[in-house]
Specification:
Largest sheet: 8 strands, mixed
Oligomer: single chain
CATH superfamily of the largest domain: FAD/NAD(P)-binding domain
Bound molecules: flavin-adenine dinucleotide
Strand content: 15-25%
CATH architecture of the largest domain: 3-Layer(bba) Sandwich
Number of strands: 20
CATH class of the largest domain: Alpha Beta
Radius of gyration: 25 Å
Number of helices: 19
Distance between the termini: 82 Å
CATH topology of the largest domain: FAD/NAD(P)-binding domain
Structural class: alpha/beta
Helix content: 25-40%
């Protein structure tokens, strides 16, 4: 009797209720181990590290809400319900519009923590930790960490560049090659390949910016890198030129031919040669590409391998967690070493907080290192290249460049969703590149791009909005799963970045009806491709419709009255918040990337794109940065 009471009491405690939820969410079934109290403990530890006690308290409160609201709905606490009833409760939480997002975050954390275990990687014969490979020799004397600098140090240079991603590194390397003294200030640290374990959780803790979530009529996590190399060091190495018709559209809107395809051609060529862009060999394309192409052929739709910026790729599918082979030619591997050879310096772990003004002109920046030291950079030209989320936040904090109120507006996200599919054949997406194929059949006509997105063990485990037996069926067969993404065009740019609490970004974004429809249309097309290729089941990233058992179910998806929050969406491509243009009332910088308001202050990153390109943007940003270097060289 006492034993029974004690057990009941334990279930009612926060971790007891959460453990019951974890058990119901993730049932036992080889090779997947059942969720339990240790799963919950791991999830709470992740939250404690990222969000402190407030995060853990919110997690516990949600577990209690699931536990006790079951009494009203089903007459018993959640932990006392039978398995099938528990499953129904979990789906109700995921499908109800009001509880969906908190619950998806809660359940994604539990699943992600559970699958970040060595035994789940071993079950699929995938290495758990890829770090520690022998390093290649590299010239790093000019890359300084916080411990290498002195408090109050003043650095004199021709050009200071804040940020080392697709914009900053490229413009900096070009200016260094012209003979200018270049100093890079980078908030993230310099990581080498022996740091890259190849798993989502450690990577997101170390190499990504935290707290970048767009809020509005849905919730969209915005992924942004924070390390030397910026987002290029955690991206999928997908390389698309800006489609010519997009460049034409920009020219029409801006009333200038400066970005016309024939004028941009030489910049694309130079970037592609520098970062070695080419089509992947067939071993790297993988089985998933073969299946996708088969499905597209059945439908009569175009498809092709994606060109990538890699040298010696080992096809380990972990590009987005840092390349353990140093194969991806991200800017820390390509442009930054070029700049170092020409004498540039990188101050890593240093956050620029203020642009220094002298006689109304930009004259450098002030920065603070991770260990609290203050640095000042005195420069003839100041280039802000922090990316489309931090750049406007930094400027707005000082109310700079904003005389016409344009800074932070026009945010586009290319919001992306997707679907996975289960096949009889072995796919092993973990042994190919994560994004190796695409179809732009619907890009111009319907506004979305279809591209590969293989599911690593830990991401696949966390992402699918399934619970109980159907979740188990999907996750125990991750080696027979093909994943793809739908990237939406987003041409209305309906978002905004504001600055709060010392330059921290607050992101708002309203998903338009049109983009919502595109997400559904994209998932419908993926389901058609998959079933045509022989899929057994299709798993849309849609909590309201997470499973299609046959091609016949696609009609139900076509008829569903969809809302923005019906899709698990994410953004890898925030753009446009300080856009360029000749007209100062609709743009922040001119066609040479110089601020309309502040002389010698330049912005060279994804924020200056005149509109979303509709395809993955790194080549567009790098080509524009190459062009910007020519213009800025005349102004230093
Ligand atoms: C997970 C992921 C996958 C992607 N996959 C692809 C892909 O396959 N193909 C593609 O074309 N694009 C991809 N992208 C997008 C692409 O990488 C980015 O669009 C591009 O890198 C943006 O360049 P940027 O210069 O604007 O900013 P970033 O590359 O993000 O660089 C900005 C840098 O500035 C630093 N910084 C910010 N604020 C400060 C400050 N105050 N002080 C000092 N430093 C600061 C940041 O730490 C960062 O290192 C992906 C992005 C992500 C996150």
């Amino acid at each position: 009797m006492w034993e029974l009471l004690r057990r009941n009491d334990a279930e009612a405690r926060p971790t007891g209720a959460a453990a019951a939820i974890a058990r119901a969410m993730i049932p036992e079934g080889e090779p997947v181990r059942q969720g339990d109290a240790s799963t919950v403990q791991a999830a709470r530890e992740i939250l404690a590290a990222r969000m402190g006690t407030a995060g853990v308290a919110a997690f516990d409160a949600l577990a209690q809400a699931v536990e006790w609201t079951a009494v009203a709905r089903r007459g018993k606490r959640f932990s006392k319900l039978a398995g099938p009833q528990q499953e129904k409760v979990l789906y109700q939480w995921a499908q109800n519009e009001w509880s969906r997002w908190p619950f998806l975050l809660f359940s994604g954390l539990i699943k992600g923590a559970h699958f970040d275990r060595p035994e789940h990687f071993e079950a699929f014969d995938v290495p758990y930790d890829r770090s520690g490979r022998p390093e290649k020799a590299r010239w790093t004397r000019q890359v300084l960490a916080p411990e290498d600098v002195d408090d109050g140090q003043v650095v004199e240079c021709d050009v200071v560049i804040v940020g080392t991603g697709a914009g900053g590194a490229v413009v900096g390397a070009k200016l260094a090659a012209e003979g200018y003294a270049v100093a890079f200030v980078e908030e993230g640290l310099y990581y080498r390949r022996d740091s890259f374990e190849g798993r989502a959780l450690p990577a997101h803790n170390e190499f990504f910016r935290h707290g970048t979530v767009a809020l509005g009529n849905t919730v969209i996590p915005v992924q942004v890198g924070k390390m030397v190399g910026g987002s290029t060091a955690v991206n999928a190495a997908t390389c698309f030129r800006t489609p010519p018709w997009v460049l034409e559209r920009w020219c029409d809107r801006l009333g200038t031919r400066e970005l016309a395809p024939e004028k941009m051609e030489k910049y694309f060529q130079e970037v592609e040669a520098t970062i070695n862009v080419h089509a992947p060999p067939s071993f790297a394309l993988g089985k998933a590409a073969e299946i996708f192409f088969r499905g597209c052929d059945e439908q009569g739709w175009n498809h092709a391998p994606i060109r990538r910026n890699v040298t010696g790729c080992t096809a380990e599918a972990v590009c987005e967690f840092g390349c353990p082979a140093d194969a991806r030619q991200s800017t820390d591997i390509s442009y930054i070493p070029r700049a170092l050879r020409k004498g540039a310096m990188v101050f890593s772990g240093a956050r620029a907080g203020k642009v220094v003004l002298r006689d109304g002109r930009a004259a450098g920046v002030e920065a603070t290192t991770l260990d609290g030291k203050n640095l000042r950079f005195d420069a003839g030209a100041t280039i802000i290249a922090c990316g489309a989320i931090p750049t406007p936040a930094l400027l707005l904090d000082q109310n700079l460049c904003n005389s016409t109120g344009q800074v932070g507006r026009n945010l586009s996200l290319h919001p992306a969703t997707g679907a996975a599919a289960l096949f009889d054949e072995t796919v092993r997406g973990f042994d190919s590149v994560p994004q190796s194929y695409f179809s732009d059949q619907f890009l111009r006509s319907e506004g979305f791009l279809l591209a590969g997105a293989q599911l690593p063990v830990d991401v696949g485990g966390a992402l699918l909005p399934l619970y109980g037996d159907s979740y188990l069926e999907a996750t125990r067969n991750l080696d027979r799963m093909v994943g793809s993404t739908v990237i939406t065009g987003d041409e209305y740019s309906p978002g905004r970045v504001r600055s709060v609490a010392g330059g921290r970004p607050l992101i708002t974004y309203r998903m338009t009806r049109r983009n919502t429809e595109r997400m559904r249309a994209g998932i419908v097309r993926l389901a058609e491709i998959y079933f045509a290729a022989g899929a057994k089941k299709v798993y849309p990233l849609m909590p309201r419709m997470p499973l299609l058992e046959s091609a016949g179910d696609i009609d139900e998806l076509r008829r569903l009255d969809v809302r923005p929050s019906d899709f698990i969406a994410t953004s890898w491509h925030p753009l446009g918040t300080c856009r360029m243009g000749p007209d100062r009332t609709t743009s922040v910088v001119d066609m040479s990337h110089e601020s309309h308001d502040v002389e010698r202050l330049f912005i060279v990153d994804g924020s200056t794109l005149p509109g979303p390109p509709g395809v993955n943007p790194q080549i567009t940003i790098m080509a524009l940065a190459t062009r910007a270097a020519e213009r800025i060289a005349h102004r230093v």
